[in-house]
Amino acid sequence: MLTQLYIIIPVSLGLLLGIVIGYALRKLLARGEVNSAEAKAEKILTEAKNKGQDYLVKVKEKAISIIDEAKREEEKRRHEISSLQKRIEKREEVFDQKLLEFQDKQQKLYEKEGKLEETKKDLQKVKEGLKTKLEEIASLSKEEAKEELLKKVAKDSADELTSRKMKLEQENQEELEKKSREILMPVIERMAGSVVAESATYSISIPNEEMKGRIIGKEGRNIKVIEQLTGAEIVIDDTPDSIMVSCFSPIRRQLAKRTLDKLISDGRIQPARIEETVENAKKELALEIRKAGEEALYKLGITGFDPKFVQVIGRLKFRTSYGQNILAHSIEVAQIATMLAEELGADVTMSKKGGLLHDLGKAMDQDIQGTHTEIGYNIMKKFGLPEDLAYMSIGHHEDRPRTLEALIVKVADAISGARPGARRDSFEQYVKRLEELEGIATSFKGVEKSYAIQAGREVRVFVKPEEMDDFACHELAKSIANQIESELQYPGEIKVNVIREKRVIEYAK
């Protein structure tokens, strides 16, 4: 037991001593570790402080560099602003100097203006004085002296002005004639075919005199039915083997002629047969009218017209003017207008249609009140044709048409109507036209006598030489020509020849 005790005590003491020693060693080790960590932390902190100081130094250096750069920029701008300010101040000085010079010059001008006004007043006084003295010396007022001077100048210059004016007009006329010949000659050469003037036929041949009685019928009933249905008058006189059809409307006259031709050929003439024949003649005539309109359009290459409008065009086949068939005349005008439009660079299609339709109103002028120009215009507007095309009906009779195409149609119409053989006048119309020409010429003051010659294509006017000078004769010729153009209708042109002749006769005894 003691032995075990002796063994346990030393072991326990050894253990206790080991524990104390271990604890002491552990404490020493822990303290060393703490000291080592603190040292590391101190070292890291020291390094961080050193780096922070280096960074602060760099930042401060950068800031100082930026501040220095900003100071340099500011100094540069201050220098530029200073230079600009000096330039502005210099300009202001120059401006002030120029303003002072301008004000000085303005003041001098005001002074000169005042002196000029004074001088002007003095000159006006001198002028008035001289004018008064001149009037006293000349015994004429200002207006009288002016009138005398103008008369003298007009008298001295009249011959010179007249000759110069005539020379200029002659040169212009020659140039215009040359250009017009260049345009018109190729057109006229291409249309140089002969023109046959058509005239309405009123006479109808019958096989024998007995046929007149059959046409008249019992108590005149047959001729009354014919006249009532056709609207034409049948004239039966002593003329052998012929009867006459008289009617203002060419369509009705043509209907009556066809009806009589059929009745005479058939031989059966009675009211029922007459009615049937008139109806057949109307159908044939309507078909022929439409065919005539279609052929005219086909010949000219025109399309797009309403069939009823084509029917109106075809009616021109049975209408004549001065013995000239209107449909043939219209086709010819369309062809001439087409060539003129090509030469002048105008609207060819418009000129062609205008040439064909310019006398359209003559197809209905016997049935509708008004002039053929107005009737034609209204018909074309009714069928929806353009205003410029409808205007052709009016424009070809105006002195100055407002469109080039209307002027071309007017010229083409004159060419077609003025060609030899194209138209014919009655003797009464011929004499009336000559009398109207001479009447217009003699209506002017200073005209002694006048003569219409060359079938009315020239009028010679003799003036009183003591009442008119050469310049006045020139103006008289123009005035007569203008009045003829405005009042008369005539084919081609009329030459106005004014003659001023003074004869001095003395006898030696």
How would you describe the overall organization of this protein?
This protein is mostly helical. Among the domains are: 203-418, Orthogonal Bundle (Hypothetical protein af1432); 427-500, GMP Synthetase, Chain A, domain 3 (2-Layer Sandwich), CATH 3.30.300.20. It is 70% helix and 7% strand. It contains 14 helices and eight strands. The strands form three sheets. Strands 1-3-2 form a three-stranded antiparallel beta sheet, covered by helices on one side. The radius of gyration is 59 Å and the shape is elongated. Mean pLDDT is 80; it is low at 192-200.
Brief overview:
It contains 14 helices and eight strands. With 509 residues, it is mainly α. The strands form three sheets. The chain has a three-stranded antiparallel β-sheet, with helices on one face.
Keyphrases for this structure?
Hypothetical protein af1432, elongated, 509 residues, GMP Synthetase, Chain A, domain 3, single chain
**Uncertain residue segments:** 192-200
Q: What is the CATH T-level topology of the domain at 203-418?
A: Hypothetical protein af1432
- The residue-averaged pLDDT reads 80
Proportion of residues in extended strands: 5-15%
Please, how many helices?
Answer: 14
| Annotation, overall tally of beta strands | 8
CATH class of the domain at 203-418: Mainly Alpha
> SSE order in H/E notation?
HHEHHEEHHHEEHHHHHHEEHE
Task: Let me know the largest β-sheet.
Answer: 3 strands, antiparallel
| Secondary structural class | mainly alpha
Computed Rg? 59 Å
CATH architecture grouping of the domain at 203-418 = Orthogonal Bundle
Q: What fraction, in percent, of the residue positions are helical?
A: 55-70%
Shape: elongated
Cα(first) to Cα(last) distance is 225 Å
Placed side by side, the strands forming the largest sheet appear as: 1-3-2
